[in-house]
Design goal:
The complex is a heterodimer.
Chain A: E1 4-9, E2 14-19, H1 29-39, E3 48-50, E4 55-61, E5 64-70, H2 76-94, H3 99-104, H4 106-116, E6 117-118, E7 121-122, H5 127-133, H6 139-148, E8 178-191, E9 197-211, E10 217-222, E11 228-233, H7 239-245, E12 247-250, E13 255-264, E14 274-282, E15 288-297, E16 305-313, E17 318-325, E18 329-333, E19 338-344, E20 353-360, E21 373-380, E22 389-395, E23 402-416
Parallel strand pairs in A: 8-23
Antiparallel strand pairs in A: 1-2, 1-5, 3-4, 4-5, 6-7, 8-9, 9-13, 10-12, 10-22, 11-13, 14-15, 15-20, 16-19, 16-21, 17-20, 18-19, 21-23
Chain B: H1 2-6, H2 18-24, H3 30-47, H4 53-57, H5 62-70, H6 72-77, H7 87-96, H8 105-118, H9 128-134, H10 139-155, H11 157-160, H12 175-188, H13 194-205, H14 210-226, H15 231-241, H16 247-263, H17 269-278, H18 285-297, H19 305-316, H20 322-338, H21 340-355, H22 360-373, H23 380-383, H24 386-390, H25 414-418, H26 443-446, H27 456-479, H28 484-507, H29 514-540, H30 552-556, H31 564-585, H32 590-593, H33 602-618, H34 625-638, E1 647-648, E2 653-654, E3 665-668, E4 676-681, E5 694-702, E6 708-717, E7 722-724, E8 729-732, E9 737-745, E10 753-758, E11 763-768, E12 776-778, H35 783-792, E13 798-804, H36 812-822, E14 826-828, E15 835-842, E16 848-855, E17 860-867, H37 870-885
The chains are: A alpha+beta, B alpha+beta.
Chain lengths: ~425, ~900
């Protein structure tokens, strides 16, 4: 299946390689570099490439390319999913998935890769199982390891892998038994010039942080489960019960995990929390343009809009911007030509506004299209779809856990066309 | 997983595990799920009939199909043949459905492709939602999923139409994702939603991503051709784009307009005029070439403009791109034909330029065109047709999706993604016209999985009954070939019927598969526990496996082609059969003796024996003496020897000894064989290919006046008989002869092996009947070993007789010569004068056969044979007695 893995930095340096079967020469990556060269933007590199003898499947995460090599037919999603799982694991272990972090923890990285794939076939991808075998690095441990010459590979085989609840290890003990659930909803929307909604939908996830002793059996029920149109679960959720009763019954993994992700049926009208009044124009003759953006609250259900952030990718011909923000700060990246306006809290009394002029390359034609505006925001204590958790029950253990549910609404791919 | 790597073609290995796999699928870890689902997809494509055909026919009443499956028995007969989904097929679909909710995108995709390839058309759409959900995932996942959706959306628009908006393009998407989304939107376009889509496209055209904008224009072109209502709107929109500032956009529009105009042979001369005006500003070669082509094609509609364009081109000809030059030549030629007055000189000028062009394509084209249009005496023939050649009405190009041909690959595969056959890609086979026997998967029923086989307990009962019957039948056949067959076979059938019912209860199989297959089902289900029970026993007599007689039961019940399972049951029954055979043949002392059998798993043996004992009581078989003796009369005269063997056993070895001439038997007389005659003898050598077989050498002689071709062995009976055929003799000349060797596993019985000796034209039934002595192979052992073994084989396993020796056989040498001529055994050297010992083993089961001859005074002797094969013992005793007393 998966023959080899190469990690390639944003700049095109190959800094780590791992082979599970036989060693494949690095030169195979030349085909990839060629494709990367052609595509220009790293986002545009096709994930599946063909070379005379190998097939290259790559992902781009955190300014890194994970490039895997296979020699035979394999479902491409299989490899892609696995590579993302690897990236997730790195993130989980080291806090972030970047070149410097991986270089710092090369030993652990190799240990992880060795465990995750066996002869090209995914083996232990569950982070709980992995953590039992290879303990995540901490400062204390690395000091101890250097002094004693020990390693952070666990001496015992993980117990979970062989049980029928592979995601949970046995003998978990906590003094404070807690279970927290974050209901996070994201609004994907495209608004057109006049502010009407072209397309909008709500995607949600429930992230859980469960620290409970023993083998608790949890049941989570919703006030209005009918809202959920399409769901996907962590493997621990009993699908039969969901189908029949619309309650989620599961034995949770230990620690942080994503319990479910869902999609709210597109028939429902989606409340758009903010409106954007914008006017971006480029003058036909002179080499300059104008920009004027105002953002106001629309349907916020009485909650405060926070973390408002506006991103405007400018046309390549824009040389510099000269803007004044009534609230927050803005930056303009000269290389990527992106205006980033960090607004912060949205004050309904005093609407934030950004206006000013854009100076263009002399002689360049007027840009065909006005840039689109991407908006990022956050509303605490609100699930925009109206989804509500009604109760959480626990069976199988005696103690009484502390339970908490938090709702957050975010903007997902929220785009305003201008 | 190993299966995929090692032997992806061995579909037959899955049969027995199929249901287990389906049921466990949900509990398997996610990576395994992907592999298993892919494998099951391939499996299902070979094992089930297509659920699609009926949908086409019964499209309006899909419901019906459901009712059918409920009352299948009744409906199965009438109507053309309504589709009934195999319950196993349904099981697979049902069990994979929850996996659509998996968090692993690869699993979701695998299920989606499974539904796409296996589910009835109206059920496929349940995967839509999940696939659309995947679009929220990472960029790379989106890419692959969109590719697959693109392929799906070509064939089934309805599936994704409600989710059209999910494919709207964001400016932040990567280019390849944008292009794919565009592709899907184009596929989804229909009369109802085209206005929405076009409005969306208008936004895209303005995109900063020029490659994407160009792709959008092409997409608009496709929509315009596919949906006739909007063609004019699209065309107008595209014409507006012609005034766009971006070159690539304009060029693309021109190309698309060209295609559109071609499909629309209506009056669009104003558009052409407009394009002609734009011509000066357009620099992209492809666009210029397109305009030129349009001018030429519709030059009659724009009679004034076309020559002017040509004039301009003549000026700039040398600096144009090749493709533009070619089109200029074309335009010149066409104008020359329609409007030669105005353009004659221009054309000649251009042709002259072209003649000396650097590009040989252009020189070539110019020369060709010149010959075609300029009349001269040499090229008269083609000249007349020049107009028809150049101005022929041309078929409009079909604008179709780039994903059109991708459906040849299985969805979700690497090959599909690359649109190239990847190494190791397994072609998804077409649906079989007729479903293979669904019962091959039934073995599972017997296994102690309670939910599926509520009648396990019940099933066992009739099965063992069955066993008895079949045993009887065989026995009776063997003993007396009288009419007993009828009764037994009928009882067999009743047994099988009860079994059939129970099996039907347990899992609602359709009855249309008919009796024959249910028959085989019986035997197959039978074999499973039977084999378990007998595992031990088998170990004891491994070598005895195949038997000549026993499988007659399955044949007589009309099992048709003896499937693998049924043959295994036959095999197992052969074991029991041969046991019981011994019992019956060894007359009265037999039953008790058996307990002393030296095999290890005694308990098992006993339980087995009980069955055979029962048989004995119930159906005392006719004494076998009559047929048997006739068998031997021939063999008696026969054997001289020559022998061999090598096989290792604990303390003793099987040896090779060789003796003089060999007695040959007639297999086929040349009169009956139409010139082909065959003789055979036993070379008394171990058969190379399979040690449990007796080697037979056949001498084929052609006594006819013409050569015979393709002499080979055809069918043999009983089918359970194991024969190693000789290689086909391609050609046997007249008066020539050839010796071939074959192996027959007689399973230690003297039953004849019947087979057909075939030539190209004819086939002759022949049979080989071995003498009991030929079923042995010599075994050397020391005297003490011999005595030890003999002690173990006392009592029931001992047969003895007193005989009077012929005078000629007085000497020790002569005695051993006589014995060795009858039986293929080895002399055990002994220092006792009055005792002679011989040791051998049966060829197929390796049971020891010990012969002791004790000479007494006045030429009498006591002949003792010790072996657990009491049948053989008695037969061998008779043979030896005859040989020693006659001579």
């Amino acid at each position: 299946m998966i023959h080899s893995l190469f990690l390639i930095s944003h700049a095109g340096d190959l800094f780590l390689e791992k082979h599970w079967k036989s060693v494949i020469s690095r030169s195979v990556c030349d085909y990839f570099f060629e494709a990367k060269e052609k595509a220009g933007d790293p986002e545009n590199v096709a994930p599946v490439l063909q070379t005379p003898h190998h097939y290259l499947i790559s992902i781009y995460r955190g300014k890194l390319f994970f490039l895997s090599v296979t020699q035979t037919e394999v479902p491409p999603l299989f490899v892609i999913e696995f590579l993302h799982r690897v990236a997730d694991t790195f993130q989980d272990y080291f806090g972030e998935c970047s070149e410097s972090v991986i270089k710092e923890n090369t030993v652990t990285v190799y240990e992880l890769l060795e465990e995750m794939l066996d002869n090209g076939f995914p083996l232990a991808t569950e982070s709980n199982v992995l953590k039992e075998m290879i303990r995540p690095p901490t400062i204390l441990r690395s000091v101890v390891n250097t002094l004693t010459g020990g390693s952070n590979v666990g001496g015992i085989l993980p117990t979970g892998q062989l049980s029928n609840v592979p995601w949970r290890r046995v003998g978990v003990k906590y003094t404070n038994n807690e279970a927290y659930f974050d209901v996070i909803e994201e609004i994907d929307a495209i608004l057109d010039k006049s502010g009407t909604t072209v397309f909008a939908e709500i995607q949600g996830v429930i992230e859980a942080c469960v620290k409970l002793s023993g083998m608790p059996d949890l049941t989570l029920s919703f006030m209005n489960p009918r809202l959920l149109d399409d769901v996907s679960f962590h493997p621990c959720v009993r699908f039969k019960r969901w189908e029949s009763e619309r309650v989620m019954s599961f034995i949770p993994p230990d620690g942080n995990f994503r319990l479910m992700s869902y999609h709210v049926s597109s028939q429902n009208l989606v409340a758009i929390p903010v409106y954007v009044k914008q006017n971006i124009s480029f003058l036909e003759t002179g080499s300059c343009g104008r920009l004027d953006i105002t953002i106001g609250p629309k349907q916020t259900m009485g909650k405060m809009v926070e973390g408002l952030m506006v991103t405007i990718p400018m046309p390549k011909s824009v040389l510099s911007v000269n803007l004044i923000a009534t609230q927050g700060t803005y930056t303009f990246d000269l290389t990527t030509k992106v205006v980033l306006w960090d607004v912060g809290k949205l004050n309904p009394q005093k609407l934030p506004n950004l206006r000013g002029s854009l100076s263009m390359q002399v002689g360049a034609p007027k840009p065909e299209e006005n840039p689109s505006i991407n908006i990022d925001l956050k509303i605490q204590q609100l699930a925009i779809s109206g989804l509500k958790v009604s109760r959480l029950d626990m069976y199988g253990e005696k103690y009484k856990p502390f339970k908490g549910v938090k709702y957050v609404t975010k903007a997902g791919k929220f785009q305003v066309r201008t | 997983m190993a299966f995929e790597e090692v032997c992806p073609d061995r579909i037959d290995l899955i049969h027995k595990n199929y249901r287990k796999l389906c049921n466990l699928l949900v509990d398997v870890e996610e990576w395994g799920q992907v592999v298993i689902i892919n494998m099951l997809t391939r499996y299902a494509r070979t094992q089930f009939t297509s659920p699609w055909k009926e949908d086409a026919v019964f499209d309006e009443n899909n419901e019906k199909a459901f009712y059918d499956s409920d009352s299948e028995e009744k409906q199965g007969q009438k109507e053309a043949k309504p589709y009934i989904m195999d319950p196993d097929h349904r099981l697979l679909l049902r069990n994979t459905k929850p996996l659509l909710q998996s968090r692993n995108t690869a699993v979701v995709m695998a299920v989606a492709q499974l539904y796409w390839h296996l589910a009835p058309k109206h059920e496929v759409s349940i995967v839509t939602k999940s696939l659309v959900r995947l679009l929220r995932s990472h960029r790379e996942v989106q890419y692959v999923v969109l590719q697959n959706i693109a392929t799906m959306s070509i064939q089934k628009k309805g599936m994704f139409e409600p989710y059209m908006k999910s494919f709207y393009v964001r400016s932040t998407d990567a280019t390849h994702i944008k292009t794919l989304k565009l592709e899907i939107l184009t596929n989804l376009a229909n009369e109802a939603n085209i206005s929405t889509i076009l409005r969306e496209f208008q936004t895209y055209v303005k995109s900063q991503d020029k490659a994407f904008a160009a792709a959008t224009i092409q997409a608009i072109g496709r929509c315009a051709t596919n949906i006739s209502e909007v063609t004019d709107t699209c065309l107008n929109g595209l014409v507006l784009l012609l005034s766009n500032r971006d070159e690539t956009v304009v060029a693309e529009s021109v190309v698309v307009i060209k295609k559109l105009l071609q499909t629309q042979p209506t009056q669009h001369s104003d558009i052409i005029k407009h394009m002609a005006k734009l011509f000066d500003n357009i620099t992209v070669p492809m666009a210029r070439a397109s305009i030129l082509w349009l001018m030429g094609e519709y030059c009659e509609r724009v009679p004034k403009i076309a020559p002017d364009v040509l004039r301009k081109m003549a000026k700039t000809f040398t600096s144009e791109e090749d493709i533009v030059k070619l089109q200029t030549v074309n335009l010149a030629a066409k104008l020359y034909l329609t409007n030669s007055k105005q353009t004659k000189l221009l054309t000649q000028y251009i042709l002259n330029l072209g003649k000396y062009d650097q590009n040989y394509d252009i020189r070539d084209r110019t020369r060709f065109v010149r010959q075609l249009i300029v009349p001269n005496e040499k090229s008269g023939a083609l000249n007349k047709y020049a107009r028809r050649i150049l101005l022929a009405p041309k078929p409009a190009p079909v604008l179709e999706s780039a994903f059109k041909d991708r459906d040849r690959f299985q969805l979700g595969t690497l090959s599909h993604s690359l649109n190239i056959k990847a190494t190791g890609y397994q072609e998804l086979s077409d649906w079989p016209a007729v479903a293979p026997d669904p019962f091959v998967r039934n073995v599972e029923v017997i296994e102690p999985v309670q939910e599926w086989a509520p009648s396990v307990g019940k099933a066992k009962q009739p099965k063992s009954d069955n066993k008895f019957y079949s045993d009887d039948e065989e026995k009776e056949e063997e003993g007396s070939v009288s009419g007993s067959e009828d009764s037994s076979s009928s009882s067999e059938e009743s047994g099988s019927e009860s079994e059939e019912e129970s099996s039907e209860e347990s899992e609602k199989t359709s009855s249309d598969s008919g009796k024959s297959s249910s028959g085989s089902e019986v035997s197959s289900s039978e074999s499973e526990p039977e084999q378990k029970k007998k595992k031990q026993i088998k170990k004891a007599n491994v070598r005895r496996s195949k038997q000549t007689a026993p499988d007659s039961d399955s044949d007589e019940n009309g099992n048709g082609p003896v499937s693998k399972t049924s043959s295994s049951s036959a095999e197992s029954s052969s074991d029991s059969e041969s046991d019981s055979e011994e019992d019956s043949d060894s007359d009265s002392p037999a039953p008790q003796k058996k307990t002393i059998v030296k095999t290890k798993p005694k308990v098992e043996v006993r339980s087995k024996k009980e069955v055979s004992l029962l048989d004995l009581d119930d159906f005392s078989p006719a004494p076998p003496s009559t047929p048997k003796s006739s068998v031997f009369s021939s063999s008696l005269l026969s054997d001289l020897e020559g022998l061999s063997l090598s096989n290792v056993s604990s303390a003793m070895q099987v040896t090779t000894s060789s003796f003089g001439p060999v007695k040959t038997y007639e297999l086929l007389h040349h009169m009956t064989g139409k010139g082909l005659s065959a003789k055979y003898h036993f070379p008394r050598q171990p058969f190379l290919y399979q040690p449990s077989m007796v080697a037979v050498q056949v001498i084929l002689t052609n006594s006819s006046d013409h050569s015979l071709e393709e002499i080979h062995i055809g069918d043999w009976s009983p089918a359970s008989l194991n024969i190693h055929c000789f290689n086909t003799v391609e050609r046997l000349e007249s008066e020539a002869s050839v010796t071939v060797s074959m192996g027959i596993d007689f399973s230690d019985s003297t039953q004849a092996a019947n087979f057909q000796l075939c030539t190209k034209e004819d086939q002759f039934s022949v049979s080989i009947q071995p003498a009991v002595g030929e079923l042995l192979m010599p075994s050397t052992m020391k005297e003490p070993d011999f005595c030890n073994e003999q002690k173990k084989l006392m009592g029931m396993n001992e047969t003895s007789a007193t005989l009077t020796m012929a005078t000629a056989n007085a000497s020790k040498q002569n005695i051993s010569k006589q014995v060795l001529s009858v039986a293929n055994v080895a002399v055990v050297s002994s220092d006792q004068n009055n005792l002679q010992r011989f040791a051998g083993r049966t060829v197929s089961s390796r049971a020891l056969v010990l012969v002791t001859l004790e000479l007494r005074e006045s030429s009498t002797a006591l002949l003792t044979i010790n072996t657990e094969k009491s049948v053989m013992a008695s037969m061998l005793l008779r043979d030896l007695k005859q040989a020693l007393s006659q001579a």
